[in-house]
Amino acid sequence: MDNTTxxxxxxxxxxxxxxxxxxxxxxxxxxxxxxxxxxxxxTDAADRTLKVGEQxxxxxxxxxxxxxxxxxxxxxxxEAARLESRAQARGSDAAASRSEVNDDLQRADAIDPxxxxxxxxxxxxxxxxxxxxxx
Length: 135
Hints:
This protein is mainly α. It contains two helices and no strands. It has one domain (3-113).
C-alpha cells in the first residue's frame, strides 16, 4: 500500500471515530434529558398525589357529615312522628274529657229545677254563669 491509501484509511477512521463520538454524545444528552423529564413528571405526580389525597379526605369527611345529617334527620323524623302520635292521643283524650264534661253539664241541667226544659245546655249554662241574680 502506498502512503496515500494509508492516509485515506486513517482519515476515514478518524471521521468514523468523530461521527461515533458525536452520536454517542447526542445519545447521552437525549438520555439525560429524558431522565430529567421523567423526574419532573414524577415530582409533579407526587405533588398532585398529595392534593388528591386531600381531596379524598375532604370527600370522606363530607360523606361522614352527610351520614350524620341523615341520621339526625331520621331521628328528628322519628321524634316528630312520636310527638304527632302523642298529640293525637292527647287530642283524643281531650275530646273524650270534653264529651264527659258536656255529659255532666247536661245531667246537671236535667236535674236542676231552675233550668228551663227545651233550652240548649249551652244557653242554660250561659244564663247560670251570669250570676246569682236570676235565683
